[in-house]
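User: Hey, my collaborator sent me this sequence without any context and asked if I could get a structure. I don't really work with proteins. Can you help?
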Amino acid sequence: MKKTIYGFLGVATMSILVVSCTSRGNSPGWEYAPDMVYSKAYEAYSQGDSNTINPYGMNMREPVEGTIARDKEDYFYPYENTAEGYEAAKSLNYPANFEDKDGRGKYMYGIYCTPCHGAKGGNDGEVFKPNRLGKPAWANYQDEYIKTLPIGQIYHTLTYGKNNMGSHASVLNPMDRWRVVRYVKELSGGDASVQPAAKDSTMTTTNNTKP
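Assistant: No problem. I've predicted the 3D structure and written it out in structure-token form, which is a compact way to encode the shape of the chain:
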């Protein structure tokens, strides 16, 4: 009887040791058909330590530097987020295919600009009312500064942000940014006429691949 009990205890102890060893760390223990769980192929969206060809073990390849994805030509913007880039943006003009027939510029302004700058550009939006943020140096959109500010520099500001205002590149696509620019000029009482750049001009490019 004692031999039976000791034998049982010995088997139980070995079982515990085996289970504890196999479940240590991140190991799930025994796996059924692991070749069916872990693909031997380099799948694009999976991360594996076995890939020694690409950097960081990635299976996806990074795009070639300087290339633009298909149908994303308008998402290239030539100027960096620097004082020099802001100054150079003066030369930008509305893209050749610009259109705002449905008043989308006003609509997008209402969503993304009104909370700070107010419906009429008076810098009286709900964000500015509690004085949580300092207001701009200019009083409102009717200020001479906004009236005469080059449209390219307004576009540059929407792309990168400036001072308390953050970048709007993630919520406004290139064409919508230009539509908002035109509506801002309309609110300012400045020159809101649209004279698009020539189709073959490199200055019609309208965004940056980074934001």
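In plain terms: Residues 200-211 have pLDDT under 50 and may be disordered. You can pass these tokens on to your collaborator as they are.
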